[in-house]
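User: I'm writing a short report section on ligand binding and want a predicted complex to refer to. Could you take this sequence and zinc ion and write out the structure as tokens? A short remark afterwards would be nice.
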Amino acid sequence: MSKTKTSFFTRAVRYITNIFLPKVCLSCRQDLDYMSTEPLCLDCLSGLEYLQKPYCERCGMPLEFSRGYCYDCEGVQHALDCARSALIYNDTLKPLVHALKYGSRDDLATFLAREMGKAYDYFPEIKDNDFVIPVPLHKKRLHTRGYNQAELLARELAKLKGLKILKGAVERNRSTPTQTTLNREQRLKNVHGAFKVVKPELVKGKKILLIDDVATTLATLDELAAALKEAGATAITAYTLAREP
Ligand SMILES: [Zn+2]
Ligand SMILES: [Zn+2]
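Assistant: Sure. The structure tokens for the complex follow:
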């Protein structure tokens, strides 16, 4: 689905501008070395921050002290068993994720998935999976964007780590408004009933790892996990590129 006419056109334009325009760091806009193959300068590369303990054992939210669960997860039943992230969604990373999602920079998925690959082995709790499912986009948004960024990340990570992607099992049946301006309550309401497992036979009895770009409240991941478990999946964990602290 990622190779639409739009993205081919964008790719061509990008290829041409890359030849004529000097490369700049996507985060601090400083000029990059002509030969640089990274989207960030050395300073910004070292500004990427990996998720490290202590964090909430369930949702991966960074915590100040090691105390098991964060306040949101304590004593609450969730469909999603646990979530981990490679990086903290800090000011260095934000412009990259933004460019990947809204700037037609699907090429950044390779670099970002490599970061996910580096941190993946740090989390044994998400490694026991039969299949990987990228969080689906609604058809309408997929059409406007030309690709699903979660799918690109999942594909690259699968290549690096030898994971199997489960295709076509679940769809997003509602185009939910963008979540960035909503609070926790509104987000929960916003995603309710957003996913439909169209091929339950594919997920039944499976342990599945969900892949997404940024984890904020986990409302979306939880909703997807609930739909998959209802269809017979036995365990659902999630791995995202970034965690909003
Ligand atoms: Zn920089
Ligand atoms: Zn938590």
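A remark for your report: The pocket of zinc ion (ligand 2) is lined by residues 56, 58-59, 61, 69-70, 72-73 (CB under 6 Å). The beta strands are 82-88, 131-134, 170-172, 195-197, 207-215, 235-243.
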